Amino acid sequence: MSPGSGRGPADPASQRCDRIVARPKRVGRALPEAVGPGQGPSGPALGQATGRIWAVAVWTPTVARMVLGLVLAWFGYHEFASPARWTGYVPVVSATSHLAEILVLVHGWFLLVLATALITGVAPRLAAALSSLFVLEIVLSVIASGGFSAAVLMGTGMFCLAVAVAGAQGQRLLLRR
Fold first, then answer.
1. Is the pTM of this model over 0.90?
2. Which residues span the domain enclosing 69?
């Protein structure tokens, strides 16, 4: 800055801005590293509440992964158990054809494989990313077969859950080498 502008290094507003800009951002730090159980500004009650929040933050991605896996397992099982009930959602193919039943069985098998991977913690982010594609496919086929409905909104929520699980870090209960 020029000396005559009044906004040189000695100006308090300029120094405050410099401190804000120079402060490193905490990108990618998880809540458990920043706040631990029992830590808080003051008082034991506040510390206990912070500990509960910490526990919820730590386990939320894992619970979301398990719920997504259970929902996919439920749909996969029912597609296996009675494929004829699901052939109406197969786009382009006649609902009464054998091809539609085969496609439903293959789809159910993939859902069960993804559900197993999510529940057991085998490559959970990859399984969640693939699940988001499968759920998006389901939402689009429901829209194609019957238009917008409550099932579309539910499927959209499942898609968002799958995307969130795919992006979540800090999973627990994983199978590792």
1. no
2. 61-167
